[in-house]
Amino acid sequence: MVAVVLLTAACGVTEPAGIDVEAVEQAIPLALLPDHPDLVTDVACPQLGSDGLGPVSCTAAVAGLAVPLIVSRPDVDGRVRVESPVELVLAVEVESLTEERLDSDLGVDNAVICKPALRVSRVGQKFACTATEPNGRIHSLMAVLVDGAGSFRLDPG
How far apart (Å, rounded) are the C-alpha atoms in residues 51 and 27? Predict the structure, then answer.
């Protein structure tokens, strides 16, 4: 689960009627994925500006996949809490595990780079990986997620 607290100075006041929904929506990518805000797009919180108390449901695309978000209304300090029930798989984790597998199987040290930087942990999500042997030989691989826990198989790229 991804959870962050977002300080929303752009909200103006802390009452629901004063919430700057657009400013909150624009701040969510950086709050949700500070290292990769560019991978969070299409944030929509249509209920955030409505009257009421408690959190509201929002949506966003993370690495191209639609995910649900729960966004609290600003507290007395103007902070908004953003949560998502999705698990993320980072490319650096896939790279490390792929290097271990290849080094063991091939008996040489490989350097592996995978893109994009992260994926939502859902079956079928893919990382495009390039493995380079010490002699410069390059292997293109596809790391395909096989479960919601981040396990993957390697297919020829």
Answer: 21
